Request: fold
Amino acid sequence: MIEVKNLVKDYGGHLAVDHLSFTIEDGQIYGFLGPNGAGKSTTMNIMAGYLGATEGQVLINGHDILEDAEEAKRCIGYLPELPPLYVDMTTEEYLNFAAALKKIPKKEREASVEAAISMARLSDVRGRLIRNLSKGYRQRVGLAQAMLGMPPVIILDEPTVGLDPKQIIEIRDLIRELGKKHTVILSSHILSEVSAVCDRIMIISGGRLVASGTPENLERRMTGGPRLELMVKGAPQKARSIAEGFLDSGAVSVTSKKEDGTEFTLLTLDLETDIREALFYAYAQAEMPIYSMNMTRASLEEVFLELTETGKMVQKEKTEKGIKRLLGKRKQKETEGFGPVVSEAEAETGGVAREELLHREEVRR
Reply:
């Protein structure tokens, strides 16, 4: 089990991870979904022990990733977005080297390397230099490295980025295979990618968790009920009154347009039950022909954008507050006789990014 408790990563006023908490159960495939810059990679780096947290705690099978790092890391296999490969080694040499770094006992090392090569389907390229391998095979070598020693938890950061469709399908199959015996955590910003292989999904935006659940429940919750779109010939007020006879007025939106001097009404109805047949007869009785009738659902992409845009707004507000706080402290120190650290104009227009200057100021203090 993995427990993430109130995790925070603050880069000089920019909250990459904002009080994030969740629990990951054993034996399932979890997906981190979110736009670029949402905090997925930062969270994974902290969980794998590659990056320290500003606040909070990460427990891997009961071991704190900071206080008991060696034992916690024994439970983790980690594949960063850019696999850490030594391209002048052959596939087999690299995996033996990685096994030694992971302190896998010598008597178990050969069997562990063979198992990783077999699972990642690298037998055909075991003697080839990594620099001569395609991107798909390099990704597999990185996966094999993560699987060495068969740790109970495997963390994969964007495992299919840059791969062609055939390679993506192969990596998906491998992840499903891993999910039978391991807890797998993978990140992506592609909704279909995560929903295709994951048992549970967590959507992160602005460093915060905005939604979580199984793909089925999350899809049902996110898309809501069906919508019916109608184009009716006739006046908007009359068209609306007929629709409202079947629904609450708040569930009907109306616009109108004219084509060749004829007035048409466009209606969008949020439905709980299918009322298309009843509407057909109602408009026919009112002598208002229906020119089109389409049942639609809000796409997952639309709702995903809505959730992540909300997260971005929250992140922007917090970043602005953090910058104001740091600038306020700078002015206070100047008043106390420390001298200027960095002017606001320099931070806005200098050759170094403003947030980097503010981060340096924080470190200097």
